[in-house]
């Protein structure tokens, strides 16, 4: 009896230790981070010279960039790291706080790829109560899908069939993180897999062929509504974590659906 109790306690301690190790800042889950490719602490007054702003309002103050959509643009606010640099597998980490915005999207593109709208390859989105991961290369931004959905002559039945045909190219997960407070978001991309964590806790996962696109070269943020605050953006090269296959199933099973 005593042996059984001791064994149970040992197992509990080991499980808690493993959970803490996986949740530790910088601890690899899907990816092992390598060489740092980019970092921005926003310790200046402007987005330049590290970012190219496309649309919307970007205000840098006290090491934080506040991002808001301009309703006149009829498009989310967006900015991308400049200059572009080539990569395939990466870890992207940033701190975010939503102050009324609908969502904060991390966008990864290939500006030379012509088979998807604007070269969009994948997206990781945090929004109140939810995260979404999307393979844009073969999903919603694939040219024939995007064009058909935008075509005013496409019927609702046709749109429904299109959405069903790309259903496996994205995934939604419920999260209990309070995004009205600062949270650290970590997006790990290795091969055809993408894992999103919030404050060290796995929050979303997607396996899809478009994620494995070999020539990504653009990283940015897109914001719908207003306002999102972002700080401490970092990007590293990534390689597969040696123990990912051993705990992949447990990580996925623990996600909120």
Please state the average pLDDT score.
91
Instruction: Say how many strands there are.
Output: 15
Tell me the β content: 35-45%
CATH class, named Mainly Beta
Which ranges are low-confidence, i.e. pLDDT below 50, for 5 or more consecutive residues?
7-28
Tell me the CATH architecture: Sandwich
Helix content: 10-25%
CATH topology: Jelly Rolls
Order of helices and strands: HEEEEEEEEEHHEEEEEEH
- Cα shape: globular
User: What's the N-to-C terminus distance?
Assistant: 38 Å
Number of folding domains? 1
The largest sheet is: 8 strands, antiparallel
- Structural class, from helix and strand content? alpha+beta
Total of helices: 4
The rounded Rg comes to 19 Å
Q: Describe it for me?
A:
The chain is α+β, with helices and mostly antiparallel strands and 257 residues long. The protein has one domain (29-253): Jelly Rolls (Sandwich). The chain has helices at 2-23, 143-150, 156-165, 244-253; strands at residues 31-40, 51-55, 57-61, 64-68, 77-81, 90-98, 103-109, 120-127, 130-135, 170-174, 183-190, 193-198, 201-207, 218-224, 226-240. Strands 1, 3, 4, 6, 11, 12, 13 and 15 form an eight-stranded antiparallel β-sheet that branches. Strands 2-5-14-7-8-9-10 form a seven-stranded antiparallel β-sheet, with no helix packed on it. Strand 11 and strand 12 form a beta hairpin. The model is unreliable at 7-28 (pLDDT under 50).
